[in-house]
């Protein structure tokens, strides 16, 4: 689904909105080799800005509208513009999850039956719950309601929750890195806008807020926002790098206590793949995970609904998208593979498949339909990693974060 496709280059612009990019497939899904079959999958939506960004965006818009004159016709829409976005809620584009549910039914229909329908969990934020129910509705519709999965477990974000990144109070954030990058690219943008709207007195922070309003307004209205035309492709690329830095240094590899926040979920993943009880002393809810009702081990399709920061922590704990050189907060690498738009766009998805080839069991992982190489567990060109080797490769999670979890509370 593309937005504003009548605008030249708009689809490419959308790919430079970092974590605010509308979902796009980062690769083409590949069927397993002919002699293999998928026997289990685990599937890990879009939203309005949260309260803090909402206030900053409204303040920036107000300053822009305070200008006595606009010297560029691209700003004339502001004369009659009213900021009307909500906060925290699932935007209409979140219905992409409905389409994802349909796709996943058709892709994995062979492993679904009346006695074995998807088991679905969600973290308790309303937008995450709505993402889950949109997905189940799409799955049910695609099956002509032969299978009607329900949201079976909602994990409270006030308790132990492997679908939220709220259980490490000592974890740092990405403010230093994103602020450093904003100090480079923000002033020229603010200065340019101030020439287009004399008297607005916009700051670098305002420029960032207005840049972010382009994707938020676009996904909310399902049409390319007029705010997007205010900025150049180069400025959006600078904005994109801010998102890349944020994800890397917030819960990714650049945050010492980032990956450990994904450990509990990985141990749940391993339990499902091996059919053995969860072994974890980190974020898991032991009461729920010890019950076959709230954590069954005999399903073929599992769907978990989470937050983008938590997905980044899970990628890092797994070993996906590993980096030999940390992103430089003052100098983007144009060849980087750490791109938030590909890792966690709106409605991002990670799918872990258990695949049987003859008498052997394997694992494959797809992130937004792009098959992951899994070199860390010996996968070849087909991306198949022997199940035992995959389990062995996850020693960080199986050792409860190798002491990092305790550091969350020291």
Automatic annotation (TrEMBL):
Annotated active site: 44, 308
Source superkingdom: Eukaryota
Keywords: Disulfide bond, Glycoprotein, Hydrolase, Secreted
Gene Ontology MF annotations: acid phosphatase activity; inositol hexakisphosphate 3-phosphatase activity
Gene3D superfamilies registered for this protein in UniProt: Phosphoglycerate mutase-like (3.40.50.1240)
InterPro entries linked: Acid_Pase_AS, His_Pase_clade-2, His_PPase_superfam, Histidine_acid_Pase_euk
Cysteine disulfide partners in this protein: 36-357, 168-408, 214-228, 377-385
Primary location group: secreted
Protein's UniProt keywords contain Hydrolase: yes
Catalytically driven reaction(s): 1D-myo-inositol 1,2,6-trisphosphate + H2O = 1D-myo-inositol 1,2-bisphosphate + phosphate; 1D-myo-inositol 1,2,5,6-tetrakisphosphate + H2O = 1D-myo-inositol 1,2,6-trisphosphate + phosphate; 1D-myo-inositol 1,2-bisphosphate + H2O = 1D-myo-inositol 2-phosphate + phosphate; 1D-myo-inositol hexakisphosphate + H2O = 1D-myo-inositol 1,2,4,5,6-pentakisphosphate + phosphate
Hydrolase in keyword set: yes
Subcellular compartments: Secreted
Pfam family name, one: His_Phos_2
Protein name per the record: Phytase A
């Amino acid at each position: 689904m593309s937005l504003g496709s009548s605008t030249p280059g708009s689809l490419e612009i959308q790919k430079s909105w970092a974590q605010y990019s509308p979902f796009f497939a980062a690769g083409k899904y590949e069927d397993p080799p002919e002699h293999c079959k998928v026997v289990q999958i685990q599937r890990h939506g879009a939203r309005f800005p949260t309260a803090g960004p909402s206030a900053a965006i409204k303040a920036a818009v107000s300053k822009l509208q305070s200008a006595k004159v606009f010297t560029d016709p691209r700003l004339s829409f502001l004369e009659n513009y009213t900021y009307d976005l909500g906060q925290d809620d699932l935007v209409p584009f979140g219905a992409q999850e409905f389409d994802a549910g349909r796709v996943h039914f058709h892709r994995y229909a062979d492993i679904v039956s009346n006695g074995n329908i998807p088991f679905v969990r969600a973290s308790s934020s309303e937008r995450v719950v709505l993402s889950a129910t949109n997905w189940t509705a799409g799955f049910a519709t695609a099956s002509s309601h032969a299978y009607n999965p329900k949201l079976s477990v909602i994990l409270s974000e006030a308790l132990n929750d492997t679908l939220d990144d709220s259980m490490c109070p000592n974890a740092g954030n990405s403010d230093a890195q994103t602020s450093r990058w904003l100090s480079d690219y923000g002033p020229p943008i603010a200065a340019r806008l101030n020439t287009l709207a004399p008297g607005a007195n916009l700051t670098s922070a305002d420029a960032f807020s207005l840049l972010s309003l382009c994707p938020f307004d676009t996904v909310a209205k399902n049409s390319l926002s007029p705010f997007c035309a205010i900025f150049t492709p180069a400025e959006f690329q600078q904005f994109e790098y801010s998102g890349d830095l944020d994800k890397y240094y917030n819960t990714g590899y650049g945050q010492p206590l980032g990956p450990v926040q994904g450990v509990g979920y990985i141990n749940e993943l391993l339990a499902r793949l091996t059919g053995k009880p969860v072994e974890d002393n980190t974020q898991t809810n032991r009461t729920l995970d010890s019950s076959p009702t709230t954590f069954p081990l005999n399903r073929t399709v599992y769907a978990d609904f989470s937050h983008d920061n938590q997905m980044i922590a899970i990628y890092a704990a797994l070993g996906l998208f590993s980096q030999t050189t940390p992103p430089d907060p003052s100098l983007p690498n144009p060849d980087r593979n750490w791109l938030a738009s590909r890792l966690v766009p709106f409605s991002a998805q990670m799918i872990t498949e258990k695949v049987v080839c003859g008498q052997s069991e394997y694992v494959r992982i797809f992130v937004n339909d792009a098959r992951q190489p899994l070199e860390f567990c010996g996968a070849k060109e087909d991306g198949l990693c022997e199940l035992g080797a995959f389990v062995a490769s996850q020693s960080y999670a199986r050792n409860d974060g190798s002491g990092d979890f305790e550091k969350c509370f020291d």
